[in-house]
Amino acid sequence: METIDSAQRRLIQHLTRLTAIETLPLDQALGRFLAHDVRSQHDVPPNHVSLFDGYALVAPYQWGEARTVAGVTYAGDAPQTLPTQTVAWRIFTGAALPDGANTVIAQESVALQEDGAIVLNESLRVGAGVRQRGADSQIGQIVLAAGSRLDAAQLGLLASVGIAAVDVVRKPRVAVFTTGNELIAPGNALPPGKIFNANHAILLAALARLSVNVLDLGVLPDHPDEIRVALQRGAAEADLVLTSGGVSVGDADLVRQVVAEIGTIDTWRVFLKPGKPLAFGRVGITPFIGLPGNPVSTFVTFFLFVRPALRSMMGANAEIDRPPLRLPLAQKWVAGDRPEFIRVRRERVPNGQTQLIFFPNQNSGLLSSIAWADGVALMPADCTLEPGDCVDYFPFEGWYL
Fold first, then answer.
1. pTM (2 decimals)?
2. What is the mean pLDDT of residues 55-65?
3. Fewest CB atoms less than 10 Å from the CB: which of 1, 120, 207, 340?
4. What is the pairing mode between strands 66-73 and 390-395?
5. Are residues 207 and 268 both part of a single domain?
6. CA–CA dist 289, 172 (Å, integer)
């Protein structure tokens, strides 16, 4: 069987990165990936500035020395000039130091005399109380590399260096449909033998998290002609065709059969649980990914395989997710013959330690386990884990980025 890491990397290698670029203002670039390195257009801060309210002066000086206050600067005022090295200058948080000053002493560390002079009651090293010009970024410096995902912190950084618009990789378009004669859209009456279609809602929400454009082809019955039409339309109009159900090796797994007829397909048996069957292929020149039909399997395999593949298509500079956390189990676990992603929740115990508790029923058809959990833990195969043993924990909030 294919290992998880191997399947992730092989899938990424099969998908071509998008090259089309669009320029967006910062307020429209949330969640997008930079197409080019971005360099600072300014030093940030553009001047030496005070870290707090106090007095700018020249250090070193003598403890108890008195200084005349020669002026005042507020945040936003143009920089002034210290008239001599033996005076002080009143200054406030974020204000530019007067030229000639090299240190700021806090207002709490001086005594104010009746004549307005101050007495210096703290010894400071040169540069104390000062944020140096260019401390955050310097003009010409690369502040964000190509492939960086733009979230609140990154957009704030770009704004701070004077960037108003950025070049980003265009969004991929994903054609998605689910299959199964048993599926009924929520909101309808439920005939005997039918179930409500949860996988479609999972895939649409997961794709929305990634800020991709979606071509929703709906839910299809297990009929080869309808599946063929949907696959051909998706291939013609999208960058990736994504399906759920019908990709195993049974007689009723028609998606796999139709893709094989009109394109190419490779069904991988990935060494994990839930979600062993994973199909990859092409319809024409358009990549196709088929996920297993059990709801939890659909959820897990989307975030394990589809998400990193789509991020790579959009130019992400990190193909696979950040390293998992290592957290201890609260309960004993007896593993099966495959690595398993189990649904878990973090729990703080009285001694302050965080540990993992797992949902009592790990059946891959139980979406209640996913809704209850705040992440999954990867349990190695063929072992027994005792309470306190540490495992890899993947928080869902990391998967949603």
1. 0.85
2. 94
3. 1
4. unpaired
5. yes
6. 14
